[in-house]
Amino acid sequence: KETDTDMWYTVDAQPGETQILPGEKTKTWGYNSSILGKTIILKEGKHMHVTLKNDLPVLTTFHWHGLNVSGPYVDGGCHAPVYPGTSNEIEFTVDQPAATLWLHAHPCPETSEQVYKGLATPVVVQDDIESKLPFPRNYGVDDIPVVLQDRHFHKGNQLNYKEDYDPDGVQGPTAMINGTVNPYFDVTTQKVRLRFLDGSNRREWRLHFDDDLKFTQIGSDGGILPEPVEFTHLMMVCAERDEVIVDFRGYKPGDEVHLYSDDVPIMTFKIHEFAPDDTKLPDHLIDMPPFAKVDKNAPVHKAAMSGMDESVEINGKKFDMQRIDDRQEVGKERIWEVSNSNEMDGGMVHPYHMHGTQFRVLSRNGKDPYPNEHGWKDTIGVNPGEVVRLQVKFDFPGVYMYHCHITEHEDGGMMLQIQAY
Ligand code: C2O
Ligand code: CU
Ligand code: CU
């Protein structure tokens, strides 16, 4: 239901069965669906009334990853349990730029298993600025969410999270794209917009197409990039979103173009008809506000990530829901220094994520951030030995989590809490 100012929506976490592979159906969980869910479309300025319904046999939470909302109850981390057979009501006003966000389960420490079973779905924010840019936006036709996950299917095509458990993150040998395996998509010779979401527990995706086809990134986690960035290869870490435009004009009907991660084809685009396309991407997409001046006397906040396996920590600590680890004043820009210690055996990339904010990247090891890190972000890959500097502002008071988004690291305690006041 929708009026000019308000919109009502129900998200029902439910068990189901999904035909993912030939043969037996896989037991899965989803939002209003047997696995994942239909993309939730939010419009900037609308006041949302959302019913969060739990039809699962266990407690879950509904976390709006990337959504700038007021406080932990709406944000949906561990602080907002929804018990089996019950529902919670939340309200929020959509007040942030057009972007691809996502909704996922976040009960601590069961996030990994619930997301693995299918509790994740894209959330798209629309606004008046993005809608005037010359991007494909016919949702499901030339504007497609691509949820990247990997799974290990056991006998009878079933998932077995406990058996596959790895404290450094569960990985599976099979790429699962939008809840399907080896999907193909019919396209024309026009441009297509792909909204990639790395929804896997641990895996990094190294994306490229046949013929080293160039594609253009137009958006990052929290919005449209100020300038488009061209790639032939793009790496994504857990929980990141990258919106890209792929130009199929060089192909003809009957051609097939594969998308790969590393050397494995994960998805096929079939060119089924010719269609003219003379749209051009502008060199400049949106204006980012100038960087705010940060008070020189304000303390620099630190998040030092370290460890592997069960030893993962931030600032030498493990998560405790009863403890507040840091405080920051609402409405003030502050510097965060996020580091990843260099472990003896090489270490891992930790995707660092903050709730309750979209941040900006100031630097990587004192140098400019990557070209596709000039827009709004809520998750950033930090390599072993690296230090990234972020500019962070909270708009609403409340307690928010910040953590590594390898979900098994998060469940293993690589997560702290900040009070915005
Ligand atoms: Cu994607 Cu704590 O979240
Ligand atoms: Cu989040
Ligand atoms: Cu980690």
Automatic annotation (TrEMBL):
Keyword Thylakoid among record annotations: no
Secretion signal, residue range per the UniProt entry: none
Keywords associated with the record: Metal-binding, Oxidoreductase
Superkingdom of origin: Bacteria
Residues of the Plastocyanin-like domain: 15-128, 298-421
This protein's record includes keyword Oxidoreductase: yes
A molecular function GO annotation: oxidoreductase activity
Family: Belongs to the multicopper oxidase family.
Name recorded for this polypeptide: Blue copper oxidase CueO
Species of the source: Fructilactobacillus fructivorans
Full-length numbering of the shown residues: 47 to 467 of 515
